[in-house]
Amino acid sequence: MKKIKIGFVGCGCISSIYLKNLTQMFKEVEIIGVCDLIRERAEKAVAEYNIPKLYEDMYELFCDPEVDIVLNITRPYEHYEVTKQALLHGKHVYTEKPLSPDLNEARELVKLAKEKGLMLGGAPDTFMGSGIQTCRHLIDNGFIGAPIGGSASFISRGPEDWHPDPEFVYQYGGGPMFDMGPYYVTALINLLGAVDTVSGMTQISYPKRPILSEKKYGTVMDVEVPTYVMGTMSFQSGAVANIFTTFDVSNMSGGTKLEIYGSEGSIVVPDPNTFDGEVLLKRGRSKEVISMPRIFNYSENSRGLGLADMAKALQSGRDFRANSEQQLHVVEVMSAFYTSSEKNEFVKIESPYERKAPMKTTELVGILEE
């Protein structure tokens, strides 16, 4: 079976792990070429990973008949236009999160892909890693009884003390909910199923923020998006979960948390921005907390796993897990927190969502199941 050829649009910070994994870990794909608005980034990728082609721009990439799937790893506010143009040129697309920061644009992309018979999917794919897949196995097999609810939080002072170019995080498409929320909401729906109703409250705590990293130290950024977001989700299953994301405050007991509560026990889920991490189980009224063994592959940083799964689906005709239905559901949930806060009302979620099959352990890491 021939390898699926991938074309990169964007060679920024996150591209390095994709480049590494798609050339070294996943055996059924091949990077055929790359492009970036800053040509030096693309040249570096070509040289370091021995990539055959360097495109002048994304349109040259889209017109290359050798490209099977376009990997869109541009900035969040660029996702929509890049993905749309790739679809219009007849390419399957895998995009970094979010699908689009705008719900109507996200809906348009899903509709366009369906009309053209093209695959569309994207990040995050951390839910496919050993940590969250182990949690799903435990929940699906009754280790905590009937799921009742959950609690998620990402608490940080923001990335401006380490990120060389943090401005985009505070512009349209950024903020803690759209930057980090996709990991948490994606994990929650993979563990608890589709969301039915949402409520939320948001605010901008600091309208201006200084960059503290070396490259642009002292530059003041305008904040365009909410940086303190609290929400509640009612799931179709009857479970209820809360989520809190912020770039405004320091946390005294660790900045990330994801827990699932059931009628007969609770689970501490690993950081959903990772592929592994400790899974803790507490049963009934027992005081004992059990560290559970992870029982699936992909415990290291395996970004690109969702793309490899999509490529396998393109070869075999089966479903793939990090699909656009999931991405759209996550975008609608995140958008609903903002809408609920603005209108002071509950928001009904309209997009359908069904969990795909859990991961299967294969003999060789990097080779996905048929």
What would you note in describing this structure?
It contains ten helices and 17 strands. The chain is of the alpha/beta class and 370 residues long. It has two domains: 4-122, Rossmann fold; 127-292, 2-Layer Sandwich (Dihydrodipicolinate Reductase, domain 2), CATH 3.30.360.10. A nine-stranded mixed beta sheet has the order 16-15-14-13-7-12-11-8-17. Helix 4 packs parallel to helix 5. The N and C termini lie close together (12 Å). The relative contact order is 0.17.
Task: Tell the overall outline.
Answer: globular
Secondary structural class: alpha/beta
Rg for CA atoms:
20 Å
**Uncertain segments:** none
Q: Would you give the CATH topology of the largest domain? A: Dihydrodipicolinate Reductase, domain 2
Query: How many beta strands in the DSSP annotation?
Result: 17
- Number of helical stretches of at least 4 residues: 10
CATH class of the largest domain: Alpha Beta
* Percent in helix: 25-40%
Biggest beta sheet attributes: 9 strands, mixed
* Second CATH tier, the architecture of the largest domain: 2-Layer Sandwich
| Total number of distinct structural domains | 2
Distance between the termini: 12 Å
CATH superfamily of the largest domain: Dihydrodipicolinate Reductase, domain 2
Beta content comes to 15-25%
**What is the typical, i.e. mean, pLDDT?**
96
